[in-house]
Specification:
- The complex is a heterotrimer of chains A (245), B (317) and C (272).
- Chain A has 245 residues and is α/β, with parallel strands linked by helices.
- Chain A has a single domain, classed as Rossmann fold (3-Layer(aba) Sandwich).
- By secondary structure, chain B is of the alpha/beta class.
- Chain B folds into two domains: 209 residues, Rossmann fold (3-Layer(aba) Sandwich); 87 residues, no CATH class.
- Chain B is built from 13 helices and twelve strands.
- Chain B has an eight-stranded mixed sheet, with helices on both faces. Chain B has a four-stranded antiparallel sheet with strand order 2-1-4-5, covered by helices on one side.
- Chain C has one domain: Orthogonal Bundle (MetI-like fold), CATH 1.10.3720.10.
- The longest helix of chain C has 37 residues.
- Classes of the chains: A alpha/beta (245), B alpha/beta (317), C mainly alpha (272).
- The interface between A and C is medium-sized, with 29 and 17 residues.
Chain lengths: 245, 317, 272
């Protein structure tokens, strides 16, 4: 298992000291992503899937429960995992720093590790279907689909073992969504990374994932093979999601 | 007489052509989904209905009739009157469409005029909470702000509501609720809806009619179920077949290669021809004229043969 | 690039004239500001294009020197403000938590003093003079700039490219320097121009009250204060520096508006 969440609970507190409210964003969530596998995570906003993604990326510490990466407990310092896990996030508009050229953005994960970028940038850009000349452009010159391709190139440049895709295609036009989803599948076949693919759209999740977990109000209500989600998921809520397609 | 009629509308910006001869009709009480990807010209068409285009836009040809009145040929005062009397608008970014310096209650009062019942109108959009009245727009969530915008647009019971991707900036959970409010209010008031969206299945679920835009023209229009279920235009077929949800287990979708065109002038032929699997020689240089296939009006030279071949979708999948 | 609108161009031109004016006094154009050139309190005429003052000095070179003093003083002060506000605003906005609370409370305390009261307090502590004027401008302009930089930094910190950089293992200096700072720079520049106009007004007020720049050195505030005594007999004494002061503040504000329209995305803009 590349990533294991074991009984993870995350509680947020809000409000003034005496009337403090406790919110459980995740309640005893257990998930596991095997080597080379894509686990889909589907749920409405507020279901806790964003918190789950933050926990998986080490950006959010669980209130209780354990997280293991590559068989070992999460290191205290996030930086120790740098380069071994990456993410492709939601908003194509804000995924790239508008003041940096595309090439600098793609090279960044290598730069922070102190590794030379060399030809890696142009090579990665070509792998995601963009010409080498894109390296010199600024994000505002790119379409939404092209920006997400750049984000994928940036995530792949360190050859990570694990990538989180958090609503990575949700903001794109439908036909572009399929292009990006196909790209993710192809790159996975080539590089063999494991992935956590998070979306509110069961259609998109079903298209790329090997197994699917359904979240609702902070809990995982069903986990099953993708095939099940084409025919007969067990949980009532999963059925609703299927019918809505 | 239809409530809205768009005839061969051509709109140019400084360097690009946004609409390249668009046609559209909408009857009273009807709901129409205008579907297209970014850059297809649907927002320009939506704004043209109320002559709300940016100043850099130029109408080169054609006309827009709202309740029989030629919107582009009226003096500015008459246009304002027409907007007030017949039209309501809801835009993508709800918070930006409200006045940031004014409390929500005061803004509503301004729209409703004297004797308007603010609480009643907020209640209609399921926001009957005194705190909303006192709030400034930036203190509202996107969904709440959009409902306020809807309450304002629907306060005068307009004959036509133009909703430009009203849920694009909202969380998925809120989307359905907001759409429910829009459609139920419109149904009660007998308001026609022109709903701009890029989500073909969602539109087909709620609207009577669907119009699909590509390259600044409406390439296919007709009853929603027909257009989605038995698309005739190859682009509609590709769009309907490209949603990930449409794929069976283990089936790989092959999206149409290439990207939508950016027009600088009139397209010499069919704008979709360079990406179309069925394109012939004449598609490149002969502009297609509307053809009626079953109940659908289609801009495609090969519409008749393709509809007989039954499932052009199979070829694109 | 979008073309600048006419108003902004006008503001820039006006500012350029004032700067040329100020630079001119350095090379002695317009004459020696301290030389007595003719009779006292003469209305504008040949030899003294803006009249003479109560000592018979030509007003024109004194206004030129005054513009220079005021602009230089305000600019230096605004640079200090920008550096301090950028540092604290960005760190507070990015880190949040207690540091954020601390910075914001300090800023609020500072903000609650009326500008001129704050300036007088500073002058009382430091003693009147240029240093007091400089410190006053800095303290008066810091609160607003820090707040706005912080607000912009909060918005930028939540963007996906910042998160991506953190996930990639970027350290704090890199995240702040490469990702946050360049994307709040527009806010800093825009607020900087507004701060500059506030700075000019504060310098004017402080020197007018006698706590700022000390005669014989000329600044716009000093000139207005000296001219005030003879306002009825010799209105040109106050008119020259007064018009220049108003023009400078207006021009800078207009340029600031133009800059804001160009550099600042809507969401980081303040409502007022």
């Amino acid at each position: 298992m590349i990533l294991e969440l074991d009984g993870v609970t995350v509680t947020f507190t809000a409000g003034p000291p005496l009337r403090r409210i406790h919110l459980n964003a995740m309640k005893h969530v257990s998930l596991a992503v095997a080597e080379g596998e894509t686990l889909g995570l589907v749920g409405e906003s507020g279901s806790g899937k964003t918190t789950t993604s933050r926990v998986a990326l080490g950006l959010q510490r669980p209130t209780s429960g354990t997280v293991r990466f590559d068989g070992r407990p999460f290191p205290k310092r996030r930086r120790e995992l740098a380069g071994r896990m990456q993410a492709v996030l939601q908003h194509p508009h804000w995924s790239l720093n508008p003041r940096m050229r595309v090439g600098q953005s793609v090279a960044e994960p290598l730069t922070v590790l102190g590794r030379p970028a060399g030809d890696a940038v142009t090579e990665m850009l070509e792998h995601v279907g963009l010409e080498a000349s894109f390296a010199g452009r600024y994000p505002h010159e790119l379409s939404g689909g092209q920006r997400q391709r750049v984000s994928i190139a940036r995530a792949l440049v360190t050859r990570p073992a694990f990538i989180v895709f958090d609503e990575a295609v949700s903001a794109l036009d439908v036909s572009v969504q399929v292009q990006i989803l196909n790209l993710i599948k192809d790159l996975q076949a080539e590089y063999g990374f494991s992935a956590l693919f998070i979306s509110h759209d069961l259609g998109a999740v079903r298209y790329v994932a090997d197994r699917i977990a359904v979240m609702r109000s902070g809990e995982v209500v069903e986990t099953a093979d993708t095939e099940t989600f084409y025919t007969a998921p067990a949980h009532e809520y999963s059925k609703q999601l299927l019918e809505a397609l | 007489m239809s409530l809205l009629a768009v005839r061969n509308l051509v709109i140019d910006y400084a360097e690009t052509r946004a609409l390249d001869g668009a046609d559209l009709d909408l009857a009273r009480g009807e709901t129409l989904g205008l579907v297209g990807e970014s850059g297809s010209g649907k927002s320009t068409l939506g704004s043209a209905v109320g002559r709300l285009l940016p100043t850099t836009a130029r109408r080169t040809e054609g006309e827009v009739l709202v309740a029989g009145e030629p919107v582009f040929d009226l003096p500015a005062r008459e246009v304002r009157k027409l907007r007030k009397k017949h039209l309501g608008f809801v835009f993508q970014d709800p918070i930006a469409s409200l006045d940031p310096t004014m409390r929500v209650g005061n803004q509503l009062r301004l729209v409703l005029g004297r004797g308007g019942d603010v609480r009643f109108h907020l209640g209609r959009v399921k926001l009957d909470d005194p705190r909303v009245l006192r709030a400034y727009p930036h203190q509202l969530s996107g969904g709440m702000a959009q409902r306020v915008a809807i309450a304002m647009a629907m306060a005068t019971s307009p004959e036509l509501l133009v909703a430009d991707e009203p849920t694009a900036a909202l969380d998925t959970q809120v989307r359905e609720e907001v759409l429910n409010v829009v459609f139920s209010l419109a149904a009660d008031a007998g308001t026609s809806i022109l709903w701009l969206s890029h989500d073909l299945p969602a539109v087909a679920r709620r609207c009577d009619q669907v119009a699909v835009m590509y390259g600044g023209r409406v390439v296919e229009r007709g009853p929603a179920r027909e257009v989605l279920g038995r698309p005739v235009h190859p682009y509609t077929a590709a769009l309907a077949g490209s949603a990930p949800a449409a794929a069976g287990h283990g089936v790989r979708l092959e999206p149409v290669p290439g990207r939508p065109p950016v027009l600088t002038g009139p397209s010499p032929g069919c704008a979709f021809a360079p990406r179309c699997a069925f394109a012939e020689e004449r598609c490149d240089h002969e502009r297609p004229q509307p053809v009626l296939v079953r109940e659908q009006e289609v801009l495609c030279h090969r519409a008749a043969e393709l509809s007989e071949a039954e499932t052009p979708r199979e070829v694109t999948a | 690039m979008k073309k600048l609108d006419r108003l902004t161009v006008g503001g820039l031109a006006c500012l350029a004239v004032l700067v040329v004016f100020a630079l001119g006094s350095l090379v002695g154009a317009g004459g020696d500001p301290d030389a007595i050139v003719g009779p006292r309190l003469q209305p504008p005429g040949p030899g003294w294009w803006l009249g003479t003052d109560n000592l018979g000095r030509s007003v024109l070179p004194r206004v030129m020197e005054g513009v220079g003093t005021t602009l230089l003083l305000s600019s230096v002060a605004v640079l200090v403000t920008a550096a301090v506000s950028a540092t604290f605003g960005i760190v507070a906005g990015y880190r949040g938590g207690y540091l954020n609370e601390l910075v914001m409370r300090l800023v609020e305390v500072l903000y609650s003093f009326p500008a001129i009261v704050l300036a007088i307090l500073v002058a009382a502590v430091l003693g009147p003079g240029q240093t007091a004027a400089l410190a006053s401008i800095v303290l008066v302009t810091i609160p607003l700039m820090t707040r706005l930089v912080r607000a912009a930094a909060v918005a930028v910190s939540q963007r996906d490219y910042v998160t991506s950089a953190v996930i990639s293992g970027a350290r704090l200096p890199r995240v702040l320097g490469r990702h946050v700072l360049p994307n709040v720079a527009g806010t800093i520049a825009v607020q900087g121009t507004y701060a500059l106009s506030v700075g000019i007004a504060v310098e004017g007020g402080l020197s007018f009250l006698g706590f700022g720049v000390q005669p014989p050195q000329a600044s716009l505030g000093v000139l207005i204060q000296q001219g005030g005594t003879y306002m009825i007999a010799a209105p040109w004494l106050i008119l020259g520096p007064g018009v220049v002061l108003v023009a400078a503040i207006l021009a800078i504000n207009v340029v600031g508006d133009g800059l804001r329209d160009r550099l600042e995305p809507r969401e980081t803009r303040s409502l007022t």
